[in-house]
Amino acid sequence: MVEEGGAPDIDPYELMEPVDILSKLPKDFYEKLEAKKWQERKEAVDSLELLLQTPKLESGDYGDVVRALKKVRLLARCVPQHRP
Q1: Whole-prediction pTM value?
Q2: How far is it, in rounded angstroms, from Cα 84 to Cα 76?
């Protein structure tokens, strides 16, 4: 698109540098996701959530992360929910 003044519109997203979050995952990320203690699992998910705050992710193979999160979600379904 072109603005009225003749200059093309600039998409701010295109100017952002993509961030490689896969290399920034904690070394024990996958181990914590599979830990027996829910607090450790939550810590792993929280660390990923912090990294995902960046607006533009670098292309990469996120398959392992998605599979690990899916597994945690399935495990969470197996645990009975405590209702007050």
Answers
A1: 0.73
A2: 18
